[in-house]
Amino acid sequence: MLAQGFNAALVSILITHISKAGVEITQTLIIQQVVAGLILTPMFWPKGIKLSDYPNLARRSFFMSMGWFFSFLAFGSGKTIIVQSILSAVPPTIVFMENIAYRKRPASAMIFSSVVIVICITILNLIT
Question: pLDDT by residue for the chain (128 residues), tens digit each?
Fold first, then answer.
């Protein structure tokens, strides 16, 4: 979760700078998706995925892509801190929803990271 937080923050900052430099949002989205696919697929080749798993993976991929697209739109408007605050809350929300769906207790690391996210968002809102 910590690595995801750093990644999301770094990507947010870079996208904001790219957007302010005049690069179109669709260019950024396409480049990001292609580069990520070309680099990460060979590095983390899917193992043990059944053919029946691909529709669920495609659905998640679609929603992730749409999330980034709408994030790019928001970054282009200059509200980076607000967008980053919302984005940082998305992964724990998804995990908690999956915990509810599968009727499992959330891991203690998940609860801890959620508390840290809330604290960080509160601090960001207080200092900006």
Answer: 567 667 767 776 777 777 777 777 666 677 777 788 788 878 887 788 888 888 888 788 787 777 777 777 776 666 667 777 777 777 777 777 778 878 888 788 878 877 887 787 777 767 76
**How far from 101 is each of 14, 18, 34, 119, CA to CA, in Å?**
35, 38, 32, 26
Q: Quote the DSSP letter at residue 52.
A: G
Sign of CA dihedral 32, 33, 38, 41: positive
CA 7, distance to chain mean position in Å, is 8
For residue 31 the two structure tokens come to 């480049």
Note the pTM of the prediction, 2 decimals.
Answer: 0.45
